[in-house]
Amino acid sequence: MSETNIQMVDLKRQYHHLKKEIDTALLSVAESGAYINGSQVNDFADELAKYLAVPYVIPCANGTDALQIALMALQLKPGDEVIVPAFTYAAAAEAVALLGLVPVPVDIDPKTFNMDASKIEMVITRQTKAIIAVHLFGQVCDMEKILTIVKRYKLFLIEDNAQSTGSEYIFSDGTRKKAGTIGDIGTTSFFPTKPLACFGDGGALITSNPDLAKRCRMIASHGQEQKYQHKIIGCNSRLDTIQAAILRIKLKYMDAFTAARVEIAKRYQEHLDFVNNIKIPQTAAFSTHVYHQYTILVQEEKRDDLQLWLKEKGIPTIIYYPFPIHHQEAFKWCIRIAMELTEAEKVCKSVLSLPIHSGMTEDEQMYIINSIKEGLAAIRK
Prior knowledge:
Elements: H1 11-32, H2 39-52, E1 56-60, H3 63-73, E2 81-85, H4 91-98, E3 102-106, E4 128-134, H5 143-153, E5 156-160, E6 168-170, E7 176-178, E8 185-189, E9 203-207, H6 210-220, E10 224-226, E11 229-230, H7 241-272, E12 278-279, E13 294-298, H8 300-312, H9 342-348, E14 351-354, H10 362-378
Parallel strand pairs: 2-3, 2-4, 4-5, 5-8
Antiparallel strand pairs: 1-9, 6-7, 8-9, 10-11, 12-13, 13-14
Helix pairs in contact: 1-7, 2-7, 3-4, 3-6, 7-10, 8-10
C-alpha cells in the first residue's frame, strides 16, 4: 500500500454505509419544518434511555453544556471543590471553573489512563462536594471504589461518558451497568467522532433521579418549568431535531460499530504487543472497552519522531493530550493542586492515538502496523 487515504475516524465512509437511512431521515425533518424540539428529539431520548436502562435522558446542545448543567443541577456553591482527573480534555475542569467552583486534579492509572481511584481520598477536604469521573478513551473508571468514597464523604458523582458510551462496568458481584448510569448524573457528547455521534454538536444528561432529571431539563431550557415560567437560572441548550434524527439511526448500529472497533483493537494488540519502545493500552478487569481511541505509549524520546514518520507515510495520529490539566494556563487562577501528578505528566509526553474506526480495512491497519514497526526501527536515539 504505497498510497493511502487513512483517516483517524472515517466519517465519510460511515455515512455512505448508512446513506439511504440518513438521507431519508434528513428529508423527513426538512419536510416537517420542526427544526427545534421536533418529535425526533423526544423519540431519541426515549430510545437512548432504553438502551442505557435508565428512566431519564435529557438531550442538550453539547457535552460541555451537559457537564455545566449537571453541576448546576447539584446546586453547588462558588468555592466548592470538584475532583477531576489530571489527564483529560479541558471540558470537565472548564465547566467547574465557569461556575466559580474549584477543580482539584487527581493523578491517573497509566495502564488505563483513567483517574486512579486509590488516590482520590488524598485530596478530599471539607470543601469537596463532587467528583467528575471521566471514562477516557472507551473504558470505565473504577466505579465501585469511587462509589464507596462518595458514600463515605457524602459527595455527588458525575460521570463524563463522552468517550465511552456503550461500555459496561462489571461489579464485583458480576452485575453490569452501562457507563454513565452509575453516578448521580451521567453526561455525554455526540460530537461527530464519538462512539455515538451526530453530524454536528450534541449532548445529553443521564440520571435515575427524578428530581435531578426535572432540574436538568429546566436548566437546559432557560430554567423554565413551563414556557415563560422561569423557576431557576438556566441556559439555552437544545439538541437540534436534525441531529436527533441522525442519532436515532446511529444508535441502532452502535453495538455493531463497537464490535468492529474491538476487532481492530485486537489486531493492533496482536501485532504491537512486545514491540520494543511502545506499550499497548490495557483494559481493566472491571470494564469493557469500546475503543473510542486506541492510544499507545511510545518511549518519550521517540514519540514525536514516530508521529512524524507516520505522517510522512500518510498515516494520521493525534496526541490526546499533550498537557495535563494543571499545566493549562486557563486554570492557574482557580485550580487547587493537592498531590503529585507524576503519572499524568509522564503520559502526556508518551501518548499517541492511532487511527481506529468501524470501517477500517485489514489492509489499511496492517499498513499502519508495519509502518510503526519500520519507523521505530529507523529512529535511533
